[in-house]
Write a structure and sequence with these properties.
Layout (H helix, E strand, L loop, with lengths): L1 H13 L2 H22 L12 H5 L6 H9 L10 H12 L1 H4 L5 H20 L3
Amino acid sequence: MVFDVLIAVWGAFTAEGEEKEKAIKSALEPLAYLEQQIQGKKLFGGEKIGYLDLVVGWLSQWLNVMEEVGGMKLLEAERFPFLHEWGQNFIQAPAIRECIPPGEKLVEYFHFSLSYRRSLAANKP
């Protein structure tokens, strides 16, 4: 399921036009599954960070940046309140906070990635 989230979010991030709307709807399904799994917990591991928290931890920062750069909104607090709260809890853990790259660097990276991918698509024969 975690791989499904990654593929769906990447698809929404890179899509354009009508395809983007379809991709956003597709990305909401695996996020809804994660929402169900985190409901009633502070972290996927309970009160302490566990394996699944580390596996989906990219959502807490990378997804926000992908939403900004990709011009979309997936992880809205109103739609996914438990997953949103989990992201805040996860990112505030000292061991995680120390390792997170600066947001500006991620924005640069995702702008480059999106531009590069679109340039490749434009140059396809």
